[in-house]
């Protein structure tokens, strides 16, 4: 199944000059959704047992949970500031138009656990790097960052010191 057939281009969203890659058609099609999750799980390292899969708010939650199930791993949501109910560790990072903060529960990862990070898209890399930093601060080991798609022209993978895998590249 060609996942790219289920990615819709939305011009000038969220602002003029941006071509938004919309995954909602993918999410709405059972065959495409399950195929995507299986393909992403198959991208994970074969020589390392993944203990936890992180899904980054919000689209990373959907397929991240499906990847965790396929890898027989736990699932951890990483959320925007103020959304998690328990004690958190936070990381603020720069955006092209300001900054943002992501948070993780302080007990989500045990030292030495192998963690796969999943989000829908790798753009500038700021969010993914912040999540990697949180994993390291909790004593986890990032084994890979995986994405449905990478926007290679934004060089986001340059900010990451971990293997990056994706199904699509633009």
UniProtKB/TrEMBL annotation:
One of its GO terms (biological process) is AMP salvage. Keywords: Cytoplasm, Glycosyltransferase, Purine salvage, Transferase. It is found in: Cytoplasm. It is an enzyme of class 2 (transferase). Homodimer. PANTHER family: ADENINE PHOSPHORIBOSYLTRANSFERASE (PTHR32315:SF3). This is Adenine phosphoribosyltransferase.
């Amino acid at each position: 199944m060609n996942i790219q057939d289920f990615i819709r281009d939305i011009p000038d969203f969220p602002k003029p000059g941006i071509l938004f890659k919309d995954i909602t058609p993918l999410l709405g099609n059972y065959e495409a959704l399950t195929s995507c999750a299986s393909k992403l799980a198959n991208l994970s390292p074969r020589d390392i047992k993944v203990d936890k899969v992180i899904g980054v708010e919000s689209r990373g939650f959907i397929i991240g949970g499906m990847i965790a199930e396929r890898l027989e791993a736990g699932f951890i949501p990483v959320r925007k500031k103020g959304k998690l109910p328990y004690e958190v560790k936070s990381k603020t990072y720069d955006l092209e138009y300001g900054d943002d903060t992501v948070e993780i529960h302080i007990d989500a990862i045990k030292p030495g656990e192998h963690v796969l990070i999943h989000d829908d898209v790798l753009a500038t890399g700021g969010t993914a790097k912040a999540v990697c930093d949180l994993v390291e601060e909790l004593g986890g080991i990032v084994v890979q960052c995986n994405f449905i798609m990478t926007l290679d022209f934004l060089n986001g993978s340059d900010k990451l010191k971990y293997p990056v895998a994706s199904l699509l590249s633009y």
